[in-house]
Amino acid sequence: MSVVRMAAVAAPFDRDLEGDFDRIAELIATARAQGVHLLALPEACLGGYLAHLDGGADEPPALRADGPEVARLAALAGDLVVCAGYCEADGDRRYNSVVCVHDGRVLGNHRKVHQPLRENASYDSGDSFAAFDTPVGRIGLLICYDKAFPESARALALDGAEIIVVVSAWPGSRTNAPADLADDRWTRRFDLFDRARALENQVVWVSANQSGNFGSMRFVCSAKIVDPGGDVLATTGTAAGMAVAEVDVTAALTAARRAMGHLRDRRPEAYLSTEPALA
Q1: What gap in Å lies between CA 54 and CA 8, rounded to an integer?
Q2: What is the pLDDT of residues 43-85, one digit of tens each?
Q3: What is the DSSP annotation of 128-183?
Q4: What distance lies between CA 135 and its chain's CA centroid?
Q5: Distances from the Cα of 149 to the Cα of 83, 139, 152, 242, angstroms
Q6: What is d(CA 48, CA 197) in angstroms, rounded to the nearest whole number?
Q7: Is 169 in contact with 208 (CB distance < 8 Å)?
């Protein structure tokens, strides 16, 4: 499928798993009614995020990737490709993960690699990035803070990702927070990362985020679709909602990469082969 109608959601989710599923069902129904093929839901939309990042926060319910809750999500997705965040259980380990489902089955799963502040008190860290094929094209998955590291998106682009879906529970400033989220420095940084990562890798970028408040967190919303030139095609702004855009993915990537192909023109031999120690 070359022409893909895609949507990114900004919505609130919490510990009420049944309530979360009700909201997800409504969002999928809305997306389907608008002809959407690819839907990105926020980080931790199954069971909510952490109430704070100081360590020792109440944790979301831990769900297995092959468990009944993910199977329920996959059944709800039906003919859509749906990406959704959850707390993944793997034995005694817990991961902040995002799963991609379609037509009753799991297509891909990513465990968050980069952990801000004390998130590591609640989750183990993933250790890899890999793209995978879907009915809407080759997709790569990231979670929130992963996008602050250019290597994350670059690894996915080099693995052939045409569309990168990043799901977030990205909050506003913890200190000196303005009344208006549009003026918040962390809203600005969220938006800058989205546009920069799309442009530097010349990929379609689909960014979902939580909205509202949870514990001490106040989320910046700002769900959006960004084209391979770094231009925002649709956004919710600093409000809950669904950003929808239709993209001819093959044509958009071809046009962006025709003259200045950022992946093609790389010079890996000139880059540092080992990283310097940082204080």
Answers
A1: 29
A2: 999 999 999 999 989 999 999 999 999 999 999 999 999 999 9
A3: ----EEETTEEEEEEEGGGGGSHHHHHHHHHTT-SEEEEEE--B--SSS--SSGGG
A4: 18
A5: 21, 18, 6, 26
A6: 26
A7: no
